[in-house]
Amino acid sequence: MLIFYLYRSENAAVEIPEEELYWIEAAEEADRKGVDIITSSLGYNVFDESRYNYTYANMDGNTSFIARGAGIAAEKGIFVLAAAGNAGQQPWHYLMTPADNAKVFSIGSVDSAGNASAFSSFGPNALGVVKPDGSTQGTGTTTVYDNATLIVNGTSIATPIAAGGVACLIQAFPAMNREQMRAKLRQTASLYPAHTDQMGYGILNFGSLYNLVLNTSETVKKDRFSIFPNPAKSILNIASELEVESLEIYDNLGRLIRKSNNQKSIKVEDFSKGTYYLKIQMKDKVFYEKFLKE
Asked: Judging by DSSP bridges, how do beta strands 79-83 and 105-110 pair with one another?
């Protein structure tokens, strides 16, 4: 079962620095709830009182309260996504905070042909970190509102699309390190290893990352280990000359349901029939295997 929490930290009547603190409070509450993903479609650079405005030099991921808070959330294991912004055709055409934080996965917008949306804000951040990290479709994108479909534009729709892909990856590989996941998403994007200031490393390809992880695991498995029987009835075994430090089994919702340490087998007899995911922790490697319970 997926659970969604909606927190509103924006005061639409004003643009004040306190809103950054409201966002941090919402992130703290989300962390207490145990969320895996935060997707945020707002950004700051200009306030009602100009003395509080940020400069491009401030877009370094460390200056604003919201960027620092978002970075802490990412360090705690939450996958934080933030819209790069829609300022691409404005005098201030740069991304906005918190998308400037290096650990925040910032999202730009493309159209259906794969071209950068003219409105999508430009990176990099002030320290030269490539931003946005990647892009999804934010021009002419279909969404749902008030029981009807409509077409919208903006990095604010591109970002939740990316968040949906990330949710699928976390479900498939629940134990994968979030920094590793961010890195692999960049590496499987359409432009990598090249990048542009408006698209980052390009259009994100979640299916490519999924297949890459499975194929890598399959290749290594042939050389270093195998699991049997698959499908399994009562016990799942690991055949390997290497030491297995731990085995963890996750269900389709990404929930850890069983763990064993220093064992090369794990009981599954009481599991319901279906698909499960096995995390195998060896001394210096982590592998993921999908198996069926009969």
From this structure: parallel
CATH of the domain at 287: 2.60.40.3080
- Is there a domain that residue 216 lies in? no
231 preceded by a cis bond (ω within 30 of 0): yes
Region of residue 202 (phi > 0: left; psi between -120 and 50: alpha; otherwise: beta): left
CA 64 to chain centre: 22
Return the exposure string of 211-249: e unless at least 16 CB atoms fall within 10 Å of the residue's CB, then b: eebeeebeeebeeebebeeeebeeebebebeeebeebbb
Domain match, 186 and 249 both: no
pLDDT digits (tens, 9 = 90+) for 156-198: 999 999 999 999 999 888 878 899 899 999 999 999 999 999 9
State the residue range of the domain holding 244. 225-293
Q: Is the pTM of this model over 0.90?
A: no
